[in-house]
Amino acid sequence: MTLVLQGPQAPLETLERLAQLAGAARVVQVDGHALRCEDVAFSAQVKQDIEAAAFAAGVDACFIEAGRSLGDFGLVAMDMDSTLITIECIDEIADMQGLKPQVSEITEAAMRGELDFSASLARRVALLEGLDASALQRVYDERLRISPGGEAMLEAVRAAGLKTLLVSGGFTFFTDRLKERLALDYTHANVLEVANGKLTGRVLGGIVDAEEKMRTVQRVCAGLGIDARQAIVMGDGANDLRMMGIAGLSVAFRAKPVVRSQANVALNFSGLDGLLTILSQA
After folding, report:
1. Candidates 60, 81, 240, 273; catalytic one
2. Which of 79, 209, 240, 273 is the catalytic position?
3. Is 236 a catalytic residue?
4. Three-class secondary structure of residue 226 per DSSP
5. What is the C-alpha separation between 264 and 256, in angstroms, rounded?
6. Does the annotation count 31 as an active-site position?
7. pLDDT tens string 205-263
8. Has the keyword Magnesium been applied to this entry (predicted)?
């Protein structure tokens, strides 16, 4: 196995100290904030010890099979809220209604896997009834930001020939705009119902929940003529686990503990472009 250590704020000395714990045959400096430790004698205990020490030091420790690169994959699929972008859109929409604390509490519980996603989304959307639809544009213009490293990551995966999918339990108002802005290949999300310029408090059609996210990844892979094991899937919440579970590489990005524990690799401190360091062989 190869161990990639990266920490944007971590000094090189900290990375080197963590590398010693791995007992690697070779240690290669990728840049001033990343090391690649090659030919690591891997075990569950080694993984647990190094990941715990790294997390305490503000470093991402990612174990991956030796020799893996972006070229092994054909698709990068991403969650939107708190993954590709820094906000939870529904929480910010609710803020326009003066209901952010109530909605955020439900969102957090759903992302931790404590609530059924579809039921929780219906509850949250119902609280938005009567809000002027212009609030959606305000959220997009004033609050939506791409997560650190997101644009660099997308540029690199496109250059490597991979397709991109944004699949979200959020809303098409935002995924449609991000598709155009970031030149994404595919998007799929929920449709908020609007009548007379106001939100009705309902979603049109079926809700994009964990099962639908997984099916979307499968559909896109099938359309591309690739196996789901040739997909990289990135997410942060419990509703991402099903689609992450079928991927060839699952990436937990600043994720809830339940997601970190089940993902192949976790980026807790690096940006989305940390994926490039993990899959770099240079």
Report:
1. 81
2. 79
3. no
4. coil
5. 14
6. no
7. 999 999 999 999 999 999 999 999 999 999 999 999 999 999 999 999 999 999 999 99
8. yes
